[in-house]
Amino acid sequence: MNLSRKTVLSLRSVALLYLLVLLVLPIGVILYRSFERGLGEFWAWITTPAAISALQLSLLIVAIVVPLNVIFGVLVALALARGRFRGKAALQAAVDLPFAVSPVVVGVALIMLWGVGGWFGGIESLGFRVIFGLPGMVLATTFVTLPFVVREVEPVLHEIGQDQEQAAATLGANAWQTFWRITLPAIRWGLTYGVVLTIARALGEYGAVLMVSSNFPGISQTLTLLVSSRNHDDYNTFGAYAAATLLMLLALIALVVMSLLEATRRRNRDDD
């Protein structure tokens, strides 16, 4: 379809205006409010004990969630791409469930399961606390980030097919050797994208974590919860903007890494 120059410019202007209103202006306001008192004041608010603890907890959750989702995501992607079994459609739907269910609902469901009086609530009598502790926050974050690795790896598995894997098996390679030497190198870019998306989503999760966290500063407060607490509980808007900027910088790092990986992938493809 050929569009006139006027139509193209109009569509481009609408798209740029849309991005300006919904993306550039809010980010600009956050940055302005974060640095309006100077870099020193900003640094002071992101290095408070509560902020450092929130950052450490957020990174700890990411460090636990990412390996879990990598292992689970690759196994499920292999099952969906290579397997033929009853219930495959149900598994496909289950993988996409976190996209459809509100994170708050996820938090409530975890409380129903692991909280006092829940189906597995008796585990607290053994001294292992899930809800309002780190395990509950990890479970909530794992659930909401579950689809990313699967949805990035599965299309790659379909694209590469099974010829090389079958050839390796014919030559005597066992399942682990085939995966390590054939499958994993082939899916490395899809897996990397899934990991980056998982990191970004885990850092920004709020609703599900809020429901299963005690939200005590220095104990069970992530960066997203710190932003909310400073803004709504302490009425400390500057501190909230500073923490939000720190969170945004972490997400920006993840975005830059993903862009660099994409550039590397294209360069490797061109070389091949």
Automatic annotation (TrEMBL):
Self-association and partners: The complex is composed of two ATP-binding proteins (CysA), two transmembrane proteins (CysT and CysW) and a solute-binding protein (CysP).
A GO CC term assigned to this protein in UniProt: plasma membrane
Compartments reported by the entry: Membrane
Organism phylogeny: Bacteria, Bacillati, Actinomycetota, Actinomycetes, Mycobacteriales
UniProt KW keywords: Membrane, Sulfate transport, Transmembrane, Transmembrane helix, Transport
UniProt-listed InterPro entries: CysW_permease, MetI-like, MetI-like_sf, Sulph_transpt2
Protein name according to UniProt: Sulfate ABC transporter
Transmembrane segments: 15-35, 55-81, 93-114, 126-150, 186-204, 238-261
Phosphoprotein in keyword set: no
Species in which this protein is naturally found: Tsukamurella pseudospumae
GO terms of molecular function: ABC-type sulfate transporter activity
